[in-house]
Specification:
Order of helices and strands: HHHEHEHEEHEHHEHHHE
Bound molecules: S-adenosylmethionine
Number of strands: 7
Number of domains: 1
CATH class: Alpha Beta
CATH architecture: 3-Layer(aba) Sandwich
Distance between the termini: 30 Å
Largest sheet: 7 strands, mixed
Oligomer: single chain
C-alpha cells in the first residue's frame, strides 16, 4: 500500500506541479523569491492549513533549538511554515519523488534550505541510526500506512527520550459500508483505520505515554464542506488556470471526501504523546 504507484491513484497527488500555476496566477512567476507564509494557501495538503501547524507549535512548544521530523511532508508547506515561524530545523520526509522535488524548489525559493532538509523515502525504511528528534509531526499521512505497529515503533525509535509526537489523522467511528470502503481504498489510498480507542491502545503498546486525543471530526467535516463549496464557486477560474481535466479530478476528490465525512463513519483525530 505504501508504494508510490498506488498512491498516485489518489487524485490530490496526480498533478502536484499545479502549485506553480497557482503561484503564477497570484503574481509569483517561477524563480521569484517567496515567503513561506505567502504561499500557505497552496502548499498544505491537510485540513485548516497553517492553523493546524500553529496548533502543533503550541502543543509541542516548538522553539529554535528543536529538531523535528515531518512524516509525509508533501509539498513541504508545514515544514517551511514551522521553520520560518519558530526557527526550528525540520527533516521533511516524503514518499513521492515529484512532490519532494517541488518541495525542495519551493524551500529554496523561500531561502529556507538550511532549516528544512527534504528527503525522499518511505518512513518505514528511514534509518534510525543517529536519529534523535525532539518531535515527530505528521498531517494526514499515517492514514496511508497500513503497518501501524512498524510505523509507531519507528516513531518511537527516532525520538529522543521525552520526545513528543503530534499527529493529525483519520480514524474509524462506525462500520464503513461497501461504497465507503471503496472510496477509502481507491480514492484515498487508505486500507486500514483504527478507532480512537484502538489508536490509543496501539500508542500505549508501543511505549508512548501522556496520550491525548482531540476529536476533530466536526471541524474537519465543516472544512471539507467549505472547501468543496469554495471550489464550485470558483470553478471557472480554476479551469482557466489548470484546465478542465485537473478541475474535474479535484472536484471529484473533494466530493468523495465530503461523502465520507457525511456518512459519519469517518472521523478525525489530533493525537499528542510522549516517548517513555
Ligand atoms: C495528505 S498528504 C499531507 C502532506 C503534508 N503533511 C501537508 O499537510 O501538506 C500525505 C503525504 O504523506 C506521504 N506519505 C504516504 N505514505 C508515506 C510513507 N510511507 N513515508 C513517507 N511519506 C508518506 C504522501 O506521499 C503524501 O504526500
Amino acid at each position: 500500500m505504501n508504494n508510490v504507484k498506488n498512491i498516485k491513484r489518489m487524485k490530490l497527488y496526480r498533478h502536484p506541479e499545479r502549485i506553480y500555476s497557482e503561484l503564477e496566477s497570484i503574481g509569483y512567476k517561477k524563480d521569484i523569491p517567496l515567503k513561506a507564509a505567502d504561499i500557505s494557501s497552496f502548499d498544505q495538503y491537510h485540513y485548516l492549513g497553517t492553523e493546524a501547524v500553529d496548533d502543533a507549535i503550541g502543543c509541542l512548544n516548538v522553539c529554535s533549538k528543536n529538531k523535528l521530523i515531518e512524516i509525509g511532508s508533501g509539498l513541504g508547506g508545514p515544514a517551511r511554515y514551522l521553520a520560518e515561524k519558530t526557527g526550528c530545523h525540520v527533516t521533511a520526509l516524503e514518499l513521492q519523488s515529484d512532490l519532494n522535488q517541488i518541495a525542495c524548489s519551493l524551500t529554496e525559493r523561500c531561502n529556507l534550505s538550511e532549516s528544512v532538509d527534504h528527503l525522499c523515502g518511505d518512513i518505514l525504511d528511514f534509518s534510525e541510526q543517529g536519529a534523535n528528534f525532539d518531535a515527530v509531526v505528521s498531517w494526514l499521512s499515517f492514514l496511508h500506512i497500513q503497518d501501524r505497529v512498524a510505523l509507531l515503533k519507528k516513531c518511537y525509535s527516532i525520538l529522543k527520550p521525552g520526545g513528543k509526537i503530534f499527529i493529525e489523522d483519520y480514524c474509524k467511528r462506525g462500520e464503513f459500508g461497501r461504497q465507503e470502503l471503496k472510496i477509502l481504498s481507491e480514492d484515498v489510498q487508505c486500507s486500514y483505520l483504527p478507532t480512537a480507542e484502538e489508536y490509543k491502545g496501539q500508542l500505549i503498546e508501543n511505549g508512548f505515554t501522556k496520550i491525548e486525543l482531540v476529536d476533530k471530526t466536526a471541524c474537519w467535516s465543516n472544512f471539507v464542506k467549505e472547501r468543496l463549496d469554495k471550489f464550485i464557486k470558483n470553478r471557472n477560474c480554476y479551469v482557466k488556470i489548470h484546465g478542465v481535466e485537473i478541475a474535474e479530478e479535484m472536484e471529484d476528490f473533494y466530493k468523495k471526501i465530503l461523502q465520507l465525512f457525511h456518512k459519519g463513519n469517518l472521523g478525525g483525530l489530533r493525537i499528542t504523546a510522549v516517548k517513555g
